[in-house]
Design a protein that fits this description.
The chain has helices spanning 22-34, 51-60, 79-87, 103-107, 123-135, 161-166, 172-178, 195-208, 218-226, 232-246, 254-267, 277-282, 304-318, 323-330, 334-344; strands spanning 41-44, 69-73, 112-116, 137-138, 147-148, 152-157, 181-184, 215-216, 251-252. By secondary structure, the chain is α/β, with parallel strands linked by helices. It folds into two domains: 22-186, 3-Layer(aba) Sandwich (Rossmann fold); 189-344, Helicase, Ruva Protein, domain 3 (Orthogonal Bundle), CATH 1.10.8.60. Helix 8 (195-208) packs across helix 10, helix 13 packs across helix 14 (323-330) and helix 14 (323-330) packs across helix 15. The longest helix is centred in the last third of the chain and has 15 residues, at 232-246. The chain is globular, with a radius of gyration of 23 Å. 35% of the residues are buried.
C-alpha cells in the first residue's frame, strides 16, 4: 500500500506499463487518451494488479508531469488524523497539533493526488472530500476559510463502489464525482502473455539491486504463465525475489519453481482450517498441493495443467465451494472462475441432506 502523503514512489518494476497482451495494450491506449485532460479518474481492479502504476503513468503523460505526484493511503488513518492528512490543520486544532500542516491536497497543488483504497474512506471524510471536489478548496482542521487548490484527482479501489453505494457505505454523489473516467486493471491470470516481460524486468531490477543474477528456464516460465496468481503482479515479484535469493543456480528450473510455488501455497495464512466431521462430509479436506510431491523421483510428476487444476480445487475446497469467495481469493471475477472450472472440468459437489 502507499504511504500516507508521500511523494516518493515505492519499488516499481518500471516507469511504464509492461506487457504485450491485448488487455495491456488497450490499457496503455486508454491511459494515453485520458492523460492529457484534468478529468477525475477512478482506477478499479484487484489488489496487486498495478493500479498505482496506472495513476503514476497518467500523471507522467499529463500536462502536470512537472508537478508532484502525491499518493495517499485512505485505509491507513481515520477520523481527524485522516482529515488532517488530506486537508491539513492549524496549530492547536487538536491534541498534539503543535504545528501547522498543509495536508496532501495542498502538497499536490499543481500536480496529481492519488487516493488509494478510496473505498475504505469513512463516510464523514467522504462528505469533506466531496466538498473539496466540488469547490476545489480545502478547509484545514481547526480553520474556517477555504484555501483554493489546483490538483488532478486519481482514485483507486479494489471494491465494487456501486455495491458499496447500494449498501450505504459509499456516497453516491462522491462516486459520480470520482468516476468521470473509469479505467480497470485485470488480474494477472487473465493476461498471462505479460508474465514473460514482467518476470524478466523484475529479475533485471533485482540484479541491479545486488541480488544474485537469475533467469527462468522455458519450463519454469510456462509454469508461471499457468499459475492463477491470486496476489497478481505483486505476488509474482515477491515469488521471483524469493527464488533469486534461495536458488543455488543462476537458472530457475521448472522443478525448483514448482517447489517454490508449493511452499508459498502451504505457507499462506489462508491455508485451509481444520474441518469438523460434518464439514468434511461436504467437501474433501486434503490439500492437493504438497511440496513433497516434487521431492520423490518415483512419484507422478505434475504437469502444468494439473498444478493449475489442483490449486483451483484447493481454493474451492477452502471456501466450501463458495464460488464468489474462491474468485476473490484467486483475484479473478466469478465469471472467470466459472469459465476456468468448466475448462478444468471441476464441478460443485451435490450436498446430500439427511432426511429428518
Amino acid at each position: 500500500m502507499t504511504q500516507p502523503c508521500s511523494g516518493r514512489a515505492p519499488f516499481a518494476p518500471s516507469s511504464s506499463i509492461l506487457g504485450g497482451s491485448t488487455a495491456t495494450m488497450q490499457l496503455r491506449a486508454d491511459i494515453a487518451r485520458v492523460a492529457p485532460f484534468d478529468s477525475n479518474v477512478l482506477v478499479t481492479g484487484p489488489s496487486g494488479s498495478g493500479k498505482e502504476l496506472v495513476a503514476r503513468t497518467l500523471h507522467a503523460q499529463s500536462s502536470r508531469a512537472e508537478g508532484v505526484f502525491v499518493p495517499v493511503d485512505c485505509a491507513s488513518l481515520f477520523g481527524e488524523l485522516m482529515a488532517s492528512q488530506l486537508f491539513g490543520h492549524v496549530e492547536g486544532a487538536f491534541t498534539g497539533a503543535s504545528y501547522t500542516a498543509i495536508g496532501c491536497f495542498r502538497a499536490a497543488d499543481g500536480g496529481t493526488i492519488f487516493l488509494d483504497e478510496i473505498g475504505e474512506l469513512e463516510l464523514p471524510l467522504q462528505a469533506r472530500l466531496l466538498r473539496t471536489l466540488q469547490e476545489r478548496v480545502v478547509i484545514p482542521v481547526g480553520h474556517h476559510e477555504g484555501i483554493p487548490v489546483n490538483v488532478r484527482i486519481v482514485a483507486a479501489t479494489n471494491r465494487d463502489l456501486r455495491q458499496e453505494v447500494a449498501a450505504g457505505r459509499f456516497r453516491e454523489d462522491l462516486f459520480y464525482r470520482l468516476n468521470v473516467i473509469s479505467i480497470r486493471t485485470l488480474p494477472l491470470c487473465e493476461r498471462p502473455e505479460d508474465i514473460a516481460e514482467l518476470a524478466q524486468q523484475f529479475l533485471d531490477a533485482m540484479r541491479s539491486q545486488g541480488l544474485p543474477p537469475t533467469s527462468l528456464s522455458p519450463g519454469a516460465l510456462e509454469l508461471l504463465q499457468g499459475y492463477p496468481w491470486p496476489g497478481n503482479v505483486r505476488q509474482l515479484k515477491n515469488l521471483l525475489e524469493q527464488a533469486a535469493i534461495t536458488s543455488e543456480s543462476e537458472l530457475l528450473t521448472l522443478s525448483f519453481m514448482q517447489k517454490i510455488l508449493c511452499e508459498a501455497v502451504g505457507n499462506e495464512p489462508t491455508a485451509a482450517p481444520q474441518r469438523s466431521a460434518m464439514q468434511t462430509d461436504r467437501v474433501p479436506s486434503q490439500p492437493h498441493l504438497e511440496s513433497n510431491r516434487f521431492e520423490q523421483a518415483d512419484q507422478h510428476w505434475a504437469t502444468l495443467a494439473e498444478m493449475q487444476r489442483d490449486y483451483v480445487l484447493y481454493t474451492l475446497e477452502h471456501t466450501y465451494y463458495n464460488q464468489s469467495a474462491a474468485a476473490r481469493l484467486l483475484g479473478i471475477s466469478r465469471q472467470a472462475l466459472i469459465r476456468l472450472m468448466q475448462k478444468l472440468d471441476l464441478q460443485v459437489p451435490r450436498i446430500k441432506r439427511k432426511q429428518r
